[in-house]
User: Which sequence fits this backbone?
C-alpha cells in the first residue's frame, strides 16, 4: 500500500486531498497545526477506508519545523509528497501587513523549498511524485495579491524547473505543480483578514470550484505524465507540460 504525506491537511484543499488519496487506498501522513481537527479527520478516514493515518502536528512557518518533520517521518516510504500548506494575503502592496507577508513567505516559499529538497534528495531515483500546490496566481499577477502571487511564481518556477532537471537527467522522481483558481475554502477569509478587501466584491458572485473537485483533478495530475495541472479562465482543469521556458545546459 502506498503512502502520501500532505501538509496543510486540516481544512480546505489539504483536507479534500486527504480524502481523495484515502479513497484511492493510500495510507496517509497528515501535517497541520490543529491537532483536534486532524484527529477528527484521522478517525473518519480510518473508519471509512480501512487505511492507516499518522498525524504530525507542526507549524511549518516556524524555522526548523520542516527539518524536524522530515526527520520524524523519513523512516516511512513516502510515495507522494504534497506541499499544500500555505496562505494568501489580499491587500495592496502599500497597505500590506509586513508581519503577515513575511510569515506567508516563510511558509509558502522557505518551508516548501526545504521539505521539497529533502524529499528530492532521498527519492530522486525512486518511482515517487512531488506535488507542490501553487495557484493561477503563480502564472499571472493579481493586483490585490502581489506578494502572494510572487510566492506562487516561485513555487511554479521551482517545481517546473525541478521536474525539467529530473527528466533531462533520466531520474525516476517526478515533480508537479497544482495551480488552483478561487476554491471554496477558508483560504479567502484568511487572505482578507486584517485588510480592507471585501471578498464578496472581489469574487462578485463567481462560481468557485469546490475543494473536492480540485482534489479529484489533483489525483488525475498525479496519475498523468504532465507537469502542471491548472484551472483555466473557464474554471476547467487542464493538464499541461511545463509553462515556463526551460534551458538545458547539461
Assistant:
Amino acid at each position: 500500500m502506498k503512502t502520501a504525506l500532505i501538509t496543510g491537511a486540516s481544512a480546505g484543499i489539504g483536507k479534500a486531498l486527504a480524502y481523495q488519496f484515502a479513497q484511492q487506498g493510500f495510507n496517509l501522513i497528515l501535517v497541520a497545526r490543529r491537532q483536534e481537527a486532524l484527529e477528527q479527520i484521522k478517525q473518519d478516514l480510518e473508519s471509512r477506508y480501512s487505511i492507516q493515518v499518522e498525524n504530525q502536528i507542526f507549524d511549518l512557518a516556524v524555522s526548523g519545523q520542516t527539518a524536524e518533520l522530515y526527520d520524524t517521518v523519513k523512516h516511512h516510504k513516502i510515495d507522494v509528497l504534497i506541499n499544500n500548506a500555505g496562505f494568501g494575503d489580499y491587500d495592496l502592496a502599500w497597505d500590506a501587513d509586513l508581519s503577515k507577508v513575511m510569515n506567508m513567505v516563510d511558509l509558502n516559499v522557505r518551508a516548501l523549498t526545504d521539505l521539497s529538497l529533502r524529499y528530492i534528495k532521498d527519492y530522486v531515483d525512486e518511482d515517487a511524485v512531488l506535488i507542490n500546490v501553487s495557484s493561477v496566481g503563480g502564472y499571472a499577477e493579481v493586483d490585490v495579491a502581489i506578494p502572494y502571487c510572487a510566492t506562487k511564481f516561485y513555487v511554479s518556477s521551482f517545481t517546473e524547473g525541478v521536474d525539467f532537471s529530473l527528466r533531462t537527467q533520466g531520474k525516476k522522481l517526478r515533480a508537479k505543480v497544482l495551480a488552483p483558481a478561487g476554491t471554496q475554502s477558508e483560504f479567502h477569509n484568511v487572505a482578507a483578514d486584517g485588510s480592507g478587501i471585501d471578498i464578496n466584491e472581489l469574487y462578485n458572485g463567481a462560481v468557485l470550484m469546490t475543494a473536492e473537485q480540485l482534489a479529484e483533478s489533483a489525483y488525475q495530475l498525479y496519475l498523468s505524465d504532465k507537469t502542471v495541472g491548472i484551472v483555466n479562465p473557464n474554471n476547467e482543469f487542464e493538464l499541461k507540460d511545463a509553462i515556463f521556458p526551460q534551458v538545458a545546459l547539461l
In short: The CA atoms of residues 138 and 150 lie 7 Å apart. The helical segments are 12-23, 35-49, 65-73, 98-123, 146-168, 187-192, 199-203, 211-223. The domain at 3-240 is CATH 3.40.50.720 (Rossmann fold). The two ends are 36 Å apart (CA to CA).
